[in-house]
Amino acid sequence: IHPLYGLEGEVLTRDWSIDHPHHRGIYWAWPEVDFGTNRGDLHALQKVFARPTGKVRLQSGPVFAEIEANNLWQWEDREPIVREQAVIRAYRATAQGRVVDLAFWFVALKDGVTLARRGMEHYGGLNVRMATPASQDISVHTDPSNAMPRRAWSDLSGVFGSTGAPSGLTVLQYPQNPDYPGDWIQYPALSWCQPTFPAAGTRYALPRGKPLELHFRLLIHSGAKP
Fold it and tell me: Has this prediction a pTM greater than 0.85?
């Protein structure tokens, strides 16, 4: 997803930056994708690639606009190993901000597909590379395990572009996601804060034909963090 605009038209995300040209705004990818005994890197575009199938559905109306797209993860850019469905729903802006909901389904087409974060403890999952704002402020929150409901959210705020006014992006994890809540990984020098999946120290096996489902909510807001 790029560009993601703030409420005043400021660009909040960064795409194909000089320091990390494989960073692509807001994107979903894993740095360790195993297929049998081989390993690829969907995050850094090595050995396995997510390619559009051309199957796209668009919907718009007074409440929200939505795009649904299908991709195939192709090993060595030839053999399909995972079918991906992504739904992006952007709601009309209100005084509280603009909500964008993300929903993903990943279905293995072959046996022996697993996903992991970098080194099984760093980044991976829903990746969020923001533009670098002035007066950057990153905060994360995860409720204790006995909280009901148990909330998990992050926020990256600052002054983006030449607006002169603060704005930012809040990311909320969906409680029904597997391994909820995912760890928060921050790289402030890169204006990066993401919810990770799967849990640290694990590899998530994609059983053939059984979908992995992940949901997130983005809140674009004006002013400092909500």
Answer: yes
